[in-house]
Amino acid sequence: MIKRTVAEIAAMAGGTLAPGTDPLFRIEGVSKDTRTLPPGCLYIPLIGESFDGHQFVQDALDKGAVASLWQKDHEQPPEGAALILVDDTLTALQALAKSYRHQLNVRVVGITGSNGKTTTKDMTSAVLSTTYKVHKTLGNYNNHFGLPLTLLQLEEDTEIAILEMGMSSRGEIRLLSELAEPEIVLITNIGESHLLQLGSRLEIARAKTEILAGLQQDGTLVYNGDEPLIEQVLPELREPGAMKAARYHRVRFGAKPDNDLYPVQQRMDASGTHFEVQRFNGIDFYIPLLGSHNVINALAALAVGVHFGIPAAVMAEGLKQLSMTSMRIEKIQAASGLTLLNDAYNASPTSMKAALKLLTELQGYRSKIVVLGDMLELGEQEAEFHRQIGAMLKPDSIDRVYVFGTLAKHIAEAAAVNYPAGHVHVFDDKSRLAQAVAAYASPDDVVLVKGSRGMKLEQVVSLLKQL
């Protein structure tokens, strides 16, 4: 984590010390949350639509913060407090993070995409950690304040930082890339998330390729070669000011054989997936995750590993030790013996289709059951996207369908066309839904639970684990 004097912090953040603040006070780390604030840190009072961190500055200092930023347009700072005065606390945080990044001898990997960002980040970390000291984005710290906070968490001897970059509108990923200045960037795919804000997949592709804005000269772009929209918008980045690097290298991964990396064999066992890659003859790769879409994510991580000079056999060992962020097709055994596939972290049409494909490919279960919730932020076509998912469901591959949520009713309506009466169920109460699934399911069955983060379907998983 950053360790500097208050005077050094002020200079890096573009601020000035308040009268009476000792310039030699030493800061160790930063925090925006007084609930988890470590002693000795710098408090960052961020301002949002419904909150203002300035009201917690005194609380932060009482809990052990050495000093705090203070936005100049706010009156009545705490008397006698050690403060760094800035024009804008968020801008100061970003400036501090960028300055710290320049002071470190760290190499940066930037990752974005509509789906699979976190999974690919975890896989990339597993590959690179075999050889380097790595720090990766924790949780969902992938936005305009989360990424700067992640940079400020880096130890001075960190060799590689893997930074996830998220967005909700145009310009956000550009900002993050320019802060991080990566030497290699990765685009997992272009899906339907954020259609509500951006209006089309083409605009989403333009927003995702903003990750090249801060790419270093002669850097590398790793991207999904199965997605034509990425290559369609790349020429637009030649426009003046669109990106830092005049020259960069491209590496394509995907399922099709015209990519630089593609799988040649795949097979699933009880808890993971084996696969081979055309570039690495004789190497059996294994990931403790199910599904061909996760093999594609693994190819992206392998492409990054190649960039950093890691041998294929070493990368294979790293993937075997993969530690995943929870709720991304997490396999759980319920007390009854029922198998649960918890994919409740998020959902879009692309990720929903991938999860359903995985379920249909699984072998050895008596019945296959889905619990599906709303897919959010899909714009004007949201009902149609849900109907498309419902139309995909067929009784010869998935036995029972349970849905929760207003939009998910469209899934049920479309699915009911294909199913006998009593095989598709709609609920507005998670407890009753879980009880209905438990009443039908046997220990030899598997249940996939998937929906957008806002639906909190992990609560259904928790109930099913106990029933």
Walk me through the topology.
Layout: E1 3-5, H1 6-13, E2 16-17, E3 26-28, E4 30-31, E5 42-43, H2 57-62, E6 67-71, E7 83-86, H3 89-103, E8 107-112, H4 117-128, E9 134-136, H5 146-153, E10 160-164, H6 172-180, E11 184-187, H7 195-198, H8 201-208, E12 219-224, H9 228-233, E13 248-253, E14 263-268, E15 273-277, E16 285-287, H10 292-307, H11 312-320, E17 330-333, E18 339-343, H12 349-361, E19 368-373, H13 382-392, E20 400-404, H14 408-416, E21 424-427, H15 430-440, E22 446-450, H16 458-466
Parallel strand pairs: 4-5, 5-6, 6-7, 8-10, 8-11, 9-10, 11-12, 12-13, 18-22, 19-20, 19-22, 20-21
Antiparallel strand pairs: 1-3, 2-7, 14-15, 15-16, 17-18
Helix pairs in contact: 1-3, 3-5, 4-10, 4-11, 13-14, 15-16
What features would you describe in this structure?
With 467 residues, the chain is an alpha/beta fold. It has 3 domains: 3-87, Udp-n-acetylmuramoylalanyl-d-glutamate--2,6- Diaminopimelate Ligase, Chain: A, domain 1 (3-Layer(aba) Sandwich), CATH 3.40.1390.10; 104-320, 3-Layer(aba) Sandwich (UDP-N-acetylmuramoyl-L-alanine:D-glutamate ligase); 330-466, Protein-Tyrosine Phosphatase, Chain A, CATH 3.90.190.20. The chain is built from 16 helices and 22 strands. It has a 6-stranded parallel β-sheet, with helices on both faces. A 6-stranded mixed β-sheet has the order 17-18-22-19-20-21, sandwiched between helices. The two termini are 44 Å apart. The model has no long low-confidence stretch (mean pLDDT 94).
